[in-house]
Structure formats: structure tokens, C-alpha cells
Amino acid sequence: MNKTESTKDPYEEKIDKLDSRNIRKALQIFKERLHSDYAAFLNSCVRCGLCADSCQYYLTYRDVESIPAYKINLIAKVFKKYHTQAGKRISRWVGAEEINQTLVREWVDTLFGRCSLCGRCALNCTMGINIPYIIRTARGALAEVGLVPPGLQSTVDTAIKSGNNMGISKEDWLETVEWLEEELQQEVNDSNAKLPVDIKDSRFL
Predict the structure, then answer these.
(1) What are phi and psi of 132, to 5 degrees?
(2) pLDDT tens, 115-168?
(3) Do residues 109 and 64 touch, judged by C-beta distance below 8 A?
């Protein structure tokens, strides 16, 4: 084993080793979760561009890959290839593509790395496309074959294990609430100001 092989990113290796069985599994999950009414959205985008100015990633980087319509098109390519007659027969004419390592990398980079699922693009979509749902569905297909980016997966694992994404114990959290309560009392000049925890019918926390 040479030095390059020994230092290769395990996540990249996982993508490199993506085989037909895993691709079929990802496609099956994608098909099961993309209900017919949402599938129709994949052919509804009119490229008006209003979603771009609602996306914090596009506003920050100003690149095409960050535009929500571009993200939807990445998913639509695969949908057309496997679920439409035109996509199966005249792929290049309709912009259909088979899912492979190259496209998977773009899905990972764009769908995980350029979207927080905040939903603002959907609110600004003139066609009413539920963009976050479609992106979440594609993410789910990647997750089923173990292709969640390591940094994100570790956060999820921590949240499942400890109940929060920062791994804070209940004792530490309660202690934090206590000093926040003290700061609140000083700020509003009221020693009776409280941050209720586990109290029935409280409006906050």
C-alpha cells in the first residue's frame, strides 16, 4: 500500500466503492419516499430565479450550485432516468442521468453541503414546489447507503446518544439555565423572573 492509498479519505473510498446493489437500494428508497404529488414538482420548475434570492447559501457564495432550482434539477435528472419513458429512451435530450459516483458526489456536496432545509425557497417558489421535502428525500436515499457526510453524521449520533447535538449532559444544561436565569433577573431587574423547566403549562422551555 502506498502513502496515497493509506491517507485516502474513508468517506471518499466509500463513494468509490459504491456498487450496483447500493445504487439500487438508494433508488428504491428514493422511489418509496417521493410520493406522486411531490414527483410532479420535479417537472414543475420554471427557472424563474426567485428561489435564488431566498437562499442564504446563494446569497453568500453567488454560485449556480447554490440556487435551489439547480438542486432540484440534480434530483430531477435521476428521477427522469429511472421513472420516465423519455428519460429511459432519450436521456440526453431530456437531461436525464444515471446515478453514479460522480453524480453522488455532486448530490452530497450540493444537497448536504449547500442546504439547511430552512424552507425559505419553498415560500418564494411561484409554482409552490416543496423544495426542502424533495431534497430531504434525496438525502434519505444517500443516508440509506451510508453516505451522510461524517461531520453531519457525528452530530446526529451525538444527538441520539445524549439527547442534544452538543452532547451536553442534563446536569450541565440545567446549570446553564440557572445562570441564564440569573442574567435575566439582573437584566430586567426582577428577582422573580424565571426560566421554568419541566413545569406544566409553561409557555417557554
Answers:
(1) -60, -40
(2) 999 999 999 999 999 999 999 999 999 999 999 999 999 998 998 888 888 889
(3) no
Query: What is d(CA 9, CA 6) in angstroms, rounded to the nearest whole number?
Result: 9
CB 134 within 8 A of CB 34: yes
pTM of the model: 0.78
What are the chain's domains?
Answer: 10-148 (1.10.1060)
Q: How far apart are CA 74 and CA 97, in angstroms?
A: 9
Q: What secondary structure does DSSP assign to 54-94, as a single string?
A: G-HHHHHH--GGGSHHHHHHHHHHHHHHHH-HHHHHSHHHH
Q: Does the pLDDT at position 49 exceed 90?
A: no
Helices (H) and strands (E) counted in the chain, each on its own, are: 13, 0
Q: Is residue 136 within a helix (H) or strand (E), and if so which, with residue range? A: helix 131-144
